[in-house]
Amino acid sequence: MTVKKEVYLTFDDGIQAGTEEVLSILKQTNVPATFYLIGKHLFNAYEKDRHKCMWLLNEIYQNHSIGNHSYYHGNDEYRKYYEEGICVDDTWKCLTVLQDFEKNEDELRWYLQELRDNFRANGNDIHVTRKTVKLARLPGSNSWVYSKKTGDAGSDLVSKLPGKQTGRWATKLFDIGYQVFGWDVEWEMNFDFYNEALQLKEDLYCRNGKDNPDSRLMNFDIDMYANENVLKDRLTETWEQVAGKVLKLQKDKIVLLMHDRAFRRGMAFAGKAEETEKLRALILYLKGRGIIFKTLDQY
């Protein structure tokens, strides 16, 4: 039996380990998605391998949609982030949530301009038909503030705000032109790297004192492909469970939240399939049920 639903696949925290694998599955299954990018992860990817980073960014820009997920992701200290802002370097320079998103917007614009310049230098140009809607998602917050017809200033405003502090910033982002989306369904996963980051911060605080900011708290990078990390930040639900949640939800439009790194290679052991195969299975199953896939600029 087919169902009349639109599903919006969204992937958070790129560009990072797993982004390439996700893009490969989306290409094979011919479905679009929205990628919410984090500035510090994009910076790390660019520093590691400039060519590969720009290739991935081009794949996203040409075939999918890009959303702003902040530059620092609140340094994973969400309460402080939404109440006070965050310290971003050893000089005690602090950013508000709005400034953090504006910084990421500037960074994304810089990388995309370099992408265009590289294409033109080779006698080509970038032609994209739908990149006019500004999308944002708050770190760690399922906040929504958007127009019923995305990008249509004359349409009715829809707000779903989980808390006073996060709602305040979601509204501010909307006021400067963003459509802010949360999610309806999440493909649940472990957050081992997040817990380890909190422990690292606690250790550094104990060693240096909370009044001594340490740059390692702001932008440390992890090799997620390393053998000791292969089991971390992995899916805790089967694709069948996620499909069940999507189909049971009484909505015509469903936003599905996932994270790039959950689908990075390295989980094929003891007869189990790679996580990417689970993503492929979910997409093909939903396609078979008549689901239509769209990007959030088409919401």
Q: What order do the helices and strands come in, and which of them pair?
A:
Blueprint: E1 6-14, H1 19-29, E2 34-37, H2 39-48, H3 50-63, E3 65-68, H4 78-84, E4 86-87, E5 94-95, H5 97-121, E6 134-136, E7 144-147, E8 157-160, H6 164-175, E9 178-180, E10 185-186, H7 192-208, H8 216-219, H9 239-248, E11 253-259, H10 275-288, E12 292-293
Parallel strand pairs: 1-2, 1-11, 1-12, 2-3, 6-9, 10-11
Antiparallel strand pairs: 4-5, 7-8
Helix pairs in contact: 1-10, 2-3, 9-10
Short characterization:
This protein has helices at residues 19-29, 39-48, 50-63, 78-84, 97-121, 164-175, 192-208, 216-219, 239-248, 275-288; strands at 6-14, 34-37, 65-68, 86-87, 94-95, 134-136, 144-147, 157-160, 178-180, 185-186, 253-259, 292-293. It has 299 residues and is an alpha/beta fold. Helix 1 (19-29) links the parallel strand 1 (6-14) and strand 2.
Tags for this model:
TIM Barrel; 12 strands; 15% strand; 299 residues; globular; two-stranded antiparallel ribbon; 6-stranded parallel β-sheet
